[in-house]
Amino acid sequence: MQAFVFLIIVGTSIAQEQRECCTAATAIVREFNRLHQQSFDRVTQNMDQHVQVLETQNLALKNQINNMERLIAQTETHLLAEISERTSEMQSALDQLTRREADNRRQQILANARSRYRIWWTAGNDRDNEGVWEWADVDRPFSSIPGRWYDGEPNDAEGGEDCAHVYLHEGGTLNDRSCNEAGGFICEFELTD
Ligand SMILES: [Ca+2]
Ligand SMILES: [Ca+2]
């Protein structure tokens, strides 16, 4: 009878220890889960904040890039307009310089010619059709010449003046004269570099 009671006491003690141990383990697991969840929430919150900062920085960078692209486009347009304007000005200056050089050369030739011949022939004539002046050497309207007739000319004096010469003493104006008279001649040529 005494031995049976002892077994019951021992059996009761083991079961109690098992319950206490189980309760403690459950508490530990619950605490671990709470701490884990707390840590996870904190990390998630930090990541959300970090992502938000990155998105803000990304938006700011996009705005800066858009501004730079707009600035580059405006600068490119301005530079192209500037280059076009400068090119036009330089071409105009070059044309003016070329014309001035041609005029100077023409004046120099005429000045040198004054002392050599009294008559300087051009290629202008109306030998084929009286009163209709043309160039003998080029297919170009006679009216496009830079010179002009002297006052009262051409007069086809005595019906025999069919060739045009230059009056050097009258500013390079033209007069019609007999083609048979001896004289110098004037040729037009293109100036080259
Ligand atoms: Ca004539
Ligand atoms: Ca004449």
Automatic annotation (TrEMBL):
Keywords: Coiled coil, Disulfide bond, Signal. Residues 1-15 form the signal peptide. Gene3D superfamilies: Mannose-Binding Protein A, subunit A. Residues 121-188 form the C-type lectin domain. Residues 51-100 form a coiled coil. SUPFAM superfamilies: C-type lectin-like. Pfam families: Lectin_C. The keyword Zinc does not apply. This is C-type lectin domain-containing protein.
